[in-house]
Amino acid sequence: MLTREQFLEYLRDALNHLYEPERLRRSPFAALFGVAERFDAASALQRILVDAIAALKPAAGEPHQSPAWQIYEPLFYRYVEQLSANEVADQLGIGTRHLRRWQSVAHEALADLLWQQFGLADRLVDARPENVHVSQPADSAGLLQELAWLKDASATSATDLAQTLPAVLDLAGKLAARYHVCLSSSQARDLPKVGVSAVALRQVLIHLLSVVIPRAAGGKVTLAADLLRWDVTVRVQCPQYPAGPRPPPDNEAENLNMACQLAELSGCRLTLAADARGFDARLTLPALEQIPVLAIDDSADALQLLGRFAAGSRYRLVGAQSPEQAFELAAKITPQVIVLDVMMPHVDGWEILGRLRQHPLTSDTPIIVCTILAQKDLAALLGASDFLRKPIIRSEFLAALDRQTAQRASTPS
């Protein structure tokens, strides 16, 4: 029988050698997937893996901050496109350690897909030690389907922790009083709102507190919220249980599993360090972007790409595909930076640049000309603050935005 860990090991090996026929031909996956006896076993296995990755691509219109993209993009760029880990991290705007975490989740998702596709349930066994019991819901698939609305809710949410955390503390306070636990909290000043459903956030924290408070009977539990670059962290801690190590209650694993599932569905990250001696849970929430940027381009694909570049940064990108829409949005969002493509089939981008410089709403707004044309000097003469020559990469785009926002912040109003 094949264990889950062995299956994942075979998967990682096949992905790392996706374009090496001899290695793929010897892969245990060739037999598992029924292609070992084919003359084109290597190419058949390669197609299976590439098609499985493609099947994980989110549907059109899926928000670019969705966890679904965090599964698909590391697999696509790292293995199908064969980019290095550093190149993928730069493309996605994350660190290499962060990328490894995303890849780990992506490998699990791809393994689940292949497992189901080839009906391997009867051939795989759980490699978990016998003395470790993890409670699973009776109908995990049904539960995930029931909670799927959290993805959409989180994509449009703007949750204020100053309102949400007191409600959590009020609920947990009753449980803390029962177990004589001192429940204290701290919150950094001026935290931004977070892009997570308030309902989901409350439930995640309640599930975590339901685990740690009974364990910490007679002791102290802390809940702290702080800003970490462009994320907000909420940490629940009891470094050492007063009564020392004790066996876990029957519902502890179920509560922790539910907290993890809710966090994942909501687009946040939960890191747990919990054992018989103490408890430390860190919930990382995406802070909503604070700096509005207006991008003007008649190509929806180009705007979507720039939106993906801005995701996870301090910038909130809003796209306009016409001059009329651009000025309408400028009045609504008061952009701190404007990105303009002057090479558009049906619109004179240079004329738009002139109009932006003359309009009272945008006359002082930094404008970055982003175009395939080699016209840096002309752009500067006509009032552009910066210039990017297409094609561009994410780091160049964010660096240009950083330059303009820093310069604007240092300029007396």
Question: How would you describe the overall organization of this protein?
Answer:
This protein has 413 residues and is an alpha/beta fold. The chain has three domains: 126 residues, no CATH class; 137 residues, 2-Layer Sandwich (Heat Shock Protein 90), CATH 3.30.565; 120 residues, 3-Layer(aba) Sandwich (Rossmann fold), CATH 3.40.50. 49% of the residues lie in helices and 17% in strands. The protein has 17 helices and 14 strands. The strands form four sheets. It has a five-stranded mixed sheet with strand order 3-4-5-7-6, with helices on one face. A five-stranded parallel sheet has the order 9-8-10-13-14. Strands 1-2 form a two-stranded parallel ribbon.
Task: Tell me briefly what this model is.
The chain is of the alpha/beta class. About 50% of the residues lie in helices and about 15% in strands.
Q: Structural class of the secondary structure composition?
A: alpha/beta
- What is the CATH C-level name of the largest domain? Alpha Beta
Strand segment tally? 14
Measured between the Cα atoms of the first and last residue, the distance is 70 Å
The overall pLDDT average reads 83
Count of DSSP H/I helices: 17
What is the CATH superfamily label of the largest domain? Histidine kinase-like ATPase, C-terminal domain
Low-pLDDT runs: 125-142
Kindly provide the radius of gyration, computed on alpha-carbon positions and rounded to a whole number of angstroms: 25 Å
CATH topology category name of the largest domain: Heat Shock Protein 90
Strand order, main sheet: write it out: 3-4-5-7-6
Main sheet summary: 5 strands, mixed
Shape: flat
